[in-house]
């Protein structure tokens, strides 16, 4: 079952992106390198609860 998750920047802590993931195959938190428009460069974004 795919669920909607929110990604937050690790530097400024703003919630910038939403994406979907399969919680059965990937139960741990997702980490992606995405562009943050407040930091103005690519940073690691982590899944928030």
From TrEMBL:
PROSITE patterns: RIBOSOMAL_L33. Keywords: Ribonucleoprotein, Ribosomal protein. NCBIfam families: PRK00504.1, PRK00595.1, rpmG_bact. One of its GO terms (molecular function) is structural constituent of ribosome. SUPFAM superfamilies: Zn-binding ribosomal proteins (SSF57829). HAMAP family: Ribosomal_bL33. GO terms for biological process: translation. PANTHER family: 50S RIBOSOMAL PROTEIN L33, CHLOROPLASTIC, LARGE RIBOSOMAL SUBUNIT PROTEIN BL33C. This is Large ribosomal subunit protein bL33. GO terms for cellular component: cytoplasm; ribonucleoprotein complex; ribosome. Gene3D superfamilies: Ribosomal protein L33. Belongs to the bacterial ribosomal protein bL33 family.
């Amino acid at each position: 079952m795919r669920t909607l998750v929110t990604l937050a920047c690790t530097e400024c802590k703003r919630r910038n992106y939403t994406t979907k993931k399969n919680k059965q195959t990937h139960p741990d938190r997702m980490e992606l390198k995405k562009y943050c428009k407040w930091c103005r460069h690519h940073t690691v974004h982590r899944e928030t609860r």
